[in-house]
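User: Predict Portal protein's structure from this.
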Amino acid sequence: MRRKGYFRRWWEQRSGELSNLLNPKQWFLDLFGGGAKTSSGLRVTSSSALLNSNVYTCASILGGDIGKLPIQVFKKRGSGLEKDDSHPVAKLLGIRPNSHMSAYTFKELLQVHLVAWGNAYANIEWYDSGPYNGQPKALWPLDPSRTDVHLDPVTGELWYVTTLPSGETRKIRSADILHLKSISRGGIKGITPIAVIREEIGVQQAQKKFLGSFYANGTTTRGILKVPGSLDKPAKDKIRDEWQKVNSGLSNAHRIAILDAGLDYQSLGMNLDDAQFIETHKFGIGEVAKIYKIPPHKLGLMDKATFSNIEHQSLEYVKSTLQPIITNWEQELIYKLFTEMERRRYYVKFNLTSELRGDSISRAQFYREMITMGAYTINEVRELEERDSIGDLGDKHFVSLNFVSLDKMDQYQMLKAGLGKEAPKGGESSG
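Assistant:
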């Protein structure tokens, strides 16, 4: 009863707006799939927006890119770092977050929820005994359309209310929820991007609906049949029916109509070319790509794409689109999955190497530079290329003999000028 009372209060206080079936508010329509009615006459919800090919493609791109990137757990040790694959968080994010999903499926699903609803939620299940007591055991995604955030005005605590597939309503504390959010008004709950592009999606859906009707009718325009005299209703209906038999459907699209008895056909409206239908379609694609910061060539707009700028756009996509999303993930994972003591030593990091590695020639040049300056060892390079180590010799760092530290530069120049001890000759040691 207490839980039902809470849910009723939450329902009545939702955004401070009362709603009923006769006068439904926007939050009510979004929650139950009604969606806002656009100027095109069609309703668009987060669920229906995913059926739009452009939104689906953006969700597929972002979900796939986040899903494929490994999330690694690092542990600080002294002045160095080491990767820790044995921590429960590493197993959840790298292998299997729950018994039903792979790590890829889990990350992809949460990112798709973030794309369509502006919020992604996952319930954290904890170990309550054993060696991992108090650490995360599993991560269970929640339906974003049936989950909401509630800030208690008295205690200031954050709670989540969700409806399970069984129909049970459950109130969950903030510490037990992973919550990824997009841009928000108050930092509590993200705004769905669909609300921003609802009109564009409505226009695109109306275009598809029009195209279906257009091709089903098999004619490029609508028009009127003019007769020299007057006709009664039965005669008009008969002529209309006969005309539609000849000109309706794709199978009749190219049949020739014969007009007799003084009939004359006059076209009304514009055809697809005159209405700049294709340009309108491209504009819709561009608007969706702009909202999600997706390079247009990934959505098939190749008008202004060249081989050189596609490479630049791909790099810009990693820096401007993926990096903010990844930072959002990392900060939420670190705060929610590690204890306060663990956060002093542990953190998670997405591995972006696969996105930035480029072709084999570019990689070889990069590795050569990193080995020459002593940043990478041979074994570290082989690990990046998923090759076995070559033993202890591969762990040595190398540096070019052509380099000298700044504090030795003056001494070396003085020795060369004969103002100090004789400069060592090639192959000799200066001590």
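DSSP finds 15 helices and 13 strands in the chain.
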